[in-house]
Amino acid sequence: MATDVQVPALGESITEGTLAQWLKKPGEAVAADEAIASLETDKVTVDVPSPVAGVLAEQLVKEGDTVAVGALIARIDQGGSASAVATPAEAAAAATTNPQGAGENPELREAPVPLIADDDHITTLSPAVRRAVLEYHVDPSKIQGSGKDGRLTKDDVIAAAQSKGAEPSPAIAPAPQAKAPAEPAPAAPSIKAPAVAGERKEERVKMSRIRQTIAKRLKEAQNTAAMLTTFNDVDMTAVIEARARYKDLFEKKHGIRLGFMGFFVKACALAAKDVPSVNASLDGEDIVYHDYLDVSVAVSAPKGLVVPVVRNAQALSFADIEKTIADFGKRAKDGTLTVDEMTGGTFTITNGGVFGSLMSTPIINPPQSAVLGMHRIEQRPVVKDGQIVARPMMYLALSYDHRLIDGREAVTFLVRVKEAIEDPTRLLIDL
């Protein structure tokens, strides 16, 4: 008996997504609730689970197709038996038979081929990863995947190739022979095309849905808000000393490292009490003020920037803030953040300093009215008590919507943050 697999509900206001990758092939056994496909939406990547145990009988859409919520994408045969999975040697031989995926069998360009074997399983490579493996002549079985469930990504292959000094071939050569757990299969002869002097390459890749949404929202923010940025710098000496003094005790008690974000989140919560417009938003001709601070923390994910929300930050302890942010960072990398966790937010903090940024003008995240940008810490000469001394300094940038926030309010907010960071005692006594 065949059971239909439909696109599940993807969250409020999300009606469709893109089928990013099939995780199971026709003929493979699946367990109930096991993921068979990965869907990419405007905000997150979600897995499509099998409703029953059985065998994947049919894939009804292709990778890259747009599918609506409730659409039929596959069928599961509850009474079927799994077909035999090709051995690693057979898979590698199939890959070398038609290395460029063209010619006699066009289907080889579409379906992923099992190329990696270990003691427990065979991992399927997506077309993009398979192409990178062939171009860079690397052994995928020796690369640690960073994707979901340890799957290889194109970046993993390129990083492994660069670590060995490998260069992509002008023409795709056969994939290296995969090793079976028992007897290694004989390696196929390597075919290399002569390099063409002055050759220039281009690769056209369709934008992901998340990247399209990021581009659309940021451009809308520029077109709608009267955006302006004010800057200040902050001496990080006191925070650095506090971290050094208490980091071991803090980690021992709370099981998490004491970072900078906890200080800045608490400093923004304190400053928002004095300047509530920075934590407000516009709704038509109304100004909506919030007596809580829901901080959207910008986190880098493999497919783009995401902004999960630390809710009621004004009431959280340093440990709660650090644990929440650490959890968001891990799950952003794994692609397991939910839509609800990235919905809402009254204020945003983004830290370009972790990538080495000295100064930037962050863009507001609508419908919010302000965003704080943190940057890298570096020793700079400053004047203290009439003496030129070296201090660990950081530039801060506050971008704000001038329709709602006056320049005086923006500068006051940033000064309050600066005062709290340079004298963390203010965070304890609410000054």
Count of discrete alpha- or pi-helical segments spanning 4 or more residues: 9
Name of the CATH class of the domain at 209-429: Alpha Beta
Q: Describe the biggest sheet?
A: 7 strands, mixed
Task: Based on the coordinates given, report the CATH architecture of the domain at 209-429.
Answer: 2-Layer Sandwich
Shape designation = globular
Please report the total strand number as a whole number: 21
- List low-pLDDT spans: 84-123, 171-185
Percentage of helical residues? Answer: 25-40%
Order of helices and strands: EEEEEEEEHEEHHHEHHEEEEEEHEEEEHH
Beta-strand percentage range: 15-25%
- The CATH superfamily of the domain at 209-429 bears the name Chloramphenicol acetyltransferase-like domain
Rounded to the nearest angstrom, the distance between the terminal CA atoms is 68 Å
Name the structural class. alpha+beta
* CATH fold category name of the domain at 209-429: Chloramphenicol Acetyltransferase
Mean pLDDT over the full residue set: 79
- Rounded to the nearest angstrom, the radius of gyration is 26 Å
